[in-house]
């Protein structure tokens, strides 16, 4: 029996050693998470078709790494964001619906500069035009507990590389290190780079210097070199991951490309072939922004493989709003850039909110699958927390997002009881100017812009326009181009969705456009 | 027997759980390290006497937290730095002697701007006036493996808060994140703040903006508030440590105060009492810089205690060169600010190089002890690596520093075979202008400035001046004020030290001042 005890002792010790090593690397059990977020990328700005049939753009753009990632994981064909950048980004890191966080339009890099354009007969509510905030500190900000803060506090190495645009300069969240990112590379209040070229110091006047507003900061060591911003951010992202690997802790990399946002500049590694394809030079430049971004994705995929962490690294691909359909700065047909989707960035039509989304979670997602569940950008918040095994979080805010982990596990699942809502109690002037130039006399509502709210439940989508007081109803499954308004023929569905939309807006504490004449909120009114 | 086995099983499991937790926190066995580095603080700028008898200043300044720290650990009474900031700081993070790294004078924040003042009949060598560098990238930089880089790669969370000043803007090391610091707060190429007040945006013209050169960067969220820079850096340091605690990894905090460097501004929390003591307003302001710095030390000591990491956190207190003795900007008697020490910052006399140093390593240092061993600032490099249990490091550079861990363990140990060397093949114009104003006709050598080298071994110190070709010899133990030059009376000691100094300078590859007439290096010549 002594021998048995000895054996047991040895076994126990052996177990302990294994367990000990395992425990030391306990964090490794939690996956690394790369959120690869593209700016202003449309649903069809890729060679990977997200629709049932390839879109015209799918034959133009070349994104082999997105194809590769989709082959490894799940492609989400009904993923949505909000129609403009800051609202989407704030929803993503707070989990809040846009009507709840009230950052309903894009934020200027200066404080106290609402970006709303005028709309006849209306005034705008006091929305959170200074963006989000880590604490009560200044007016017109939303105070929330952020995703990176929660991850960091639970032991994740958190970093943002690239575009922040969470708040105006001076508000805490304009420096992402104040909302939980340990590292913040080239990220602040600006929404787009002044210049993509390192040789032009990314728009900073002086080499090694910094120009207030819009010059990308923090990349001084690259100034004067022959590198494109997309490439530089990729190199920086690898440095970030190197550090997490040295610390032996899991990481959350918020890889936030400035591409493919304006200014439309040529990533010269890819320009000539798009000219050879017959594209207009401006559109060819746009295509290089897309392919440069895809190259970055491929580089990061290679990095995790080479470092031996590919099997424990989640990659989530997403864009923050629809593709830009304005001319200028684009050269294509205005509001037709995202065909078969209607309109583009700034619109509540599909072109403004439908996103190319891919999720790869080794050992969880199944290779080459496709999920059709409706997903909204605030869903990333609970999803990422679930992946990181973080439960029972106390947040300052009420979270509206719903985890999509189950759809990653089983892409065939569908929950048609889930509704997504959009809310834009404002006017995006940029859309109007393109309208005026190309379609004089046409109302912004015809491109899905102007003050509006929308809801999607299952295949059905309803949009309400505050200016025209009109509702439109579409079946997105059979009519992805939103050409056939079924509001008149299907009043039952209209009533159901209109009621639900209003209920959910109220729940989230929505602000509404204000009647200039009466000073009263213009609540949605159903006129069938 | 079944019960015995069961008991054993339970015990084994219990053991494993404990072991597992322990293993998970394996890094905790390595101490956290706070390097509390003050800028331009003199050896007597404290209420803690470092000499055998209290210095006049010891009765003026109030630094209760330094006293407290010294009561907890070891006070080093013969700790030295180089006479100017950048040389010291580069030695600290590279472990190299100043003659070896060749950053022999302070670096301008612009590239290619040597800071040397003229000296009749001499030219200056091509020293590394652009500072240190993480890689071969630009001329006149020293490429070295840095202390934070090694610590980071071994799993330490590394951060610098405050003054960097390792290199000119555009050189990689001007951003400390390029030399191994994960976080870099308010740290770049500048050597002093334009302004200490948050209400003045730390010298940045625009609120939330950034002024190229000298405005402290990265603290935009404090702009306009009623806070002093020293306090703000302390708050930021706590945020840094919070993060390391969340990640459960050990940290290296390079707490690098801009205080007590010029501009001499009032930290109003402490001003009135120094006026009440009868100090001139400028000197009273200087005293507030000192006490504000001490308050920061106390705050950090409280922080580690409150977080329960006091027993595993090393605190090292050090300054980077001697106290400023120029008038203006100071108001005291020129070159008498550091009595009993002779001269001040920029001098190879004790006033320029002797530093207030305290080391506290819980469980290792003995409370309230005093070590008299000669220590030089490059010694921090191997010391900190030893504390972090990092052995056999491959560095690009040869390390000249020697660990002082053994003197922390036993403060009575003395190694008189160790020699420290200083090398300044240049001229610091700032010293000259005070001379001219107050002591017209006096040579810079009389305040220990101008091109010079020095050596200290045991109690003996020899200084060689390249301009006058004169050697001076002092016994620092019996003549701390360097009033009695013993060169003539002790030629044997002069020869010994002069030979050793030259040998060590040669070993380090020293550059020498150049004779303008012959274009040849002015090697030291012994004329007894």
TrEMBL record, chains A, B:
Pfam families linked to this entry: Sulfatase
Leader peptide range in chain numbering: 1-23
Domain Sulfatase N-terminal: 31-389
InterPro entries: Alkaline_phosphatase_core_sf, Sulfatase, Sulfatase_CS, Sulfatase_N
Cofactor (UniProt): Ca(2+)
PROSITE patterns: SULFATASE_1 (PS00523)
Record's keyword terms, sorted: Calcium, Hydrolase, Metal-binding, Signal
Family: Belongs to the sulfatase family.
Protein name: Sulfatase
Species per Swiss-Prot/TrEMBL record: Pseudopedobacter beijingensis
